[in-house]
Amino acid sequence: MEEKKLTYEQAFQEAVPTIFGFLVSEFGFSLTHDESWLFEGQTEYALIEIVLDRHTVQVGMRPVDPKDQYLPEPLRRAGKIPLELIVRCLDPDLHIGFKTEIKPEGIRGDLEKYADLLRRYCSRMLSGDFGEWANIQAYLEKRK
Length: 144
Fold this sequence. Notes:
Elements: H1 8-19, H2 21-27, E1 30-35, E2 38-42, E3 46-53, E4 56-63, H3 73-76, E5 81-82, H4 83-90, H5 107-126, H6 133-143
Antiparallel strand pairs: 1-2, 2-3, 3-4, 4-5
Helix pairs in contact: 1-5, 4-5, 4-6
């Protein structure tokens, strides 16, 4: 019997909870999935967005502001910085090498790279310490 190929969204939906489960078990995040192309991880101090954008995966994060609860949903999602830029600021010599377009079976590999980058470079932020955030924002401002 021939194995059915997964769509991009199916591959994404199956892989994210497993690969990013450490956010829940190690850092106390809730991981929600309201759209077929979006997972959100949140604690009282951090918001992470894992997105399937056409045929690529993107991960962004930001600190949570207590005033966020009063904002409409689209504004609550604003202000995240892509993980690649956060890592580039923290380690300018690192070459990240994500593909610009992947096949459904390649989604898992990119998600694993993002999860590894989160663990290696953002564990303090995942624990609520955003002491580096101002430096990251300043780095991004200089790049403009």
